[in-house]
Amino acid sequence: MSLLTEKDRPVVQLLMDTDTCPRCVLRFCCVASQTLYRRPYKDLMKDLKEFLKNNKEKEDTVCFDIADPPCKRIRLEHTEGPGDVNHNGALQQIPSVSDENAAMENSAVKACNVCLGILQEFCEADFVKKVCQKVNSADYQFTSFVFSVSLPPQLSVREHAAWLLVKQEMGKLGLSLARDDIVQLKEAYKWIIHPQLSEELNVPADGKSLFEVSVVFAHPETAEECHFLATACPDCFKPVKNKQSVFTRMAVVKALEKIKEEDFLKHFPCPPSSPKNLCVALEIQCNNGAVFVAGRYNKYSRNLPQTPWIIDGERKLESSVEELISEHLMAEFKADSFNFSSSGREDVDVRTLGNGRPFAIELVNPRRIRFTAEEMKGLQQTINNSSDKIQVRDLQLVTRSAIGRMKEGEEEKTKTYSALIWTDKAIQREDIAFLDDIKELKLDQKTPLRVLHRRPLAVRCRIIHTMKSEYIDEHHFRLHLKTQAGTYIKEFVHGDFGRTKPNIGSLLNRTTDILELDVESVDVDWPPTLDN
Amino acid sequence: FSQLQHHNYISSCRICVITLAEAHPLLQNGKTITSINYQISPNCSRLQNKVSGKSKRGAQFLTELAPLCRISSSDGEEYTIYSCIRGRLIEVNENILSNPAILQEKPSTEGYIAVVLPKFEESKSVTQGLLTQKEYEEVLLKRLNSSSLN
Fold first, then answer.
1. pTM recorded for the entire structure
2. Which of B15, B57, B124, B127 to mutate to test the interface with A (most CBs of A within 10 A)?
3. For residue range A128-169, what is the model confidence (pLDDT) as tens digits?
4. How far is A488 from chain B (nearest CA, A)?
5. Helices within A234-287 (DSSP H only)
């Protein structure tokens, strides 16, 4: 941290003369004391003017009351007076310091030519109130916030110009000024506004917070200022679809890093011009990070798809597993939308019995985020009371990383099934008994015809670990099987035109078909079982 | 021979399976199959058909009159099996090469000839161009009657 010292005087003079606001002046003098920036605008203005008035003997008399270690840089005599310009061609003549009294009487704040008002009006209590009003009316539940700000790209250009200006000035004193030495605009802005927001909202600012308040600033008046960069550094600007501007902040920053100083000064005024207007805050938005709810579901209907079944805008079957579960969660969490995923899935006409199938729902931008274990149980009961087609258990909040565990289950874990099988030729008990002795049966399954329109053609090797048969009559028996994840059971039973080999039909030397299928268990030990 | 020598099985997902129809000569008594050949021209073998991805890129495109294979019987006859529908060839049944018997024993299931996927826009018109089982039987009946009148 450093105080304003003698060496800063010409820089302060230079910047103040071109309508740079006091806080930007401090930034370019590398003053890093947060408290200073928080001082009221008027006071800072007064202090800087005082500083300029004081002559050499009264160093450090200005009310910057933080004790700092002495500046390590060499301090040279200030040899140039105001208005003395001897720079390279593109720099303008700086007018003499305007009368101090006249300046004080002029109460209207001129828009800063570097920050375009960000460190001026947008640090004031009025703006803070506006933001907090928006936050409070949006009715979110949160314990901290992160404030993110989107600045118009032309600010980077003006910053660059101001830096070149100050760098040259300091060069006259034999001092250097690296770009990184300057206090970043966004950083200074957050120093000032975070405590104010924090106080109004009653929660701390936290970079890792899931609750984000974001503001987008724009300055239409100077919107075209960056366009010259496209001709100077064409490869930094990639063509963009959707009518969006090619002059993104990132592209502009990249171009500024590349462009040579002389070229820059040819195309852009240094110091930057004074704008007529301040920036405007285009939008203030709130967003909560997603929450994840997991559980296991049972499916008792043979007429229910997992996801909505809609063809050409027409719904083919009423409702779906995901809608029946998510409907209530969406209402309670007051989310914008949801993403449903599960550890595998079953067909419309297949029931899911036993402990059920693990699922997880991502609730996007929820207004409510905290629920006790009791409340979750209550939610589970509500879902279960609302439908007899599905039931859920072990409903709980989980982290995003938990989804990975569930998907693991889909690829790796075994499933057990119960199938009701029909045969064309008669069977006796002895004819099916041998199935019970077959272990680790390897299958080659070509992509089933019934899904071939939406899946690539491939051959899958899958294993039937164990089987247990239950004779019913001459044309029916029940088969319990434990299989590797990803096995197509129906095709294993009827053979799918001979494209799954071996199959029950080929094993029994008959034509077989599957009448009913139930999932008996999904052998994944996630999510954790709760005492329901 | 009749244009109705093929039977198409379409599931609700637009996939078509080409099989021999009931009345096809090869399925009548006494015919023995001596060879099945998927090489339909010097440059084109249906066995070379390779598809990739969901949209089945690289598939040989078939029109109604595109030959799928040529089958010879022991009495010296050779039959060409045509696609009868427009679409991408997904696969031909290689099982009948190693086991020609299933072509005659289970013509509608394991003895299928080929799997074809019509273009999405054309799937409706393809379905409409086919006969139902009932309509097919009526046609056969008419044929029998007209031939017996000669």
1. 0.78
2. B15
3. 999 999 999 999 999 999 999 999 999 999 999 999 999 988
4. 17
5. 249-258, 261-267
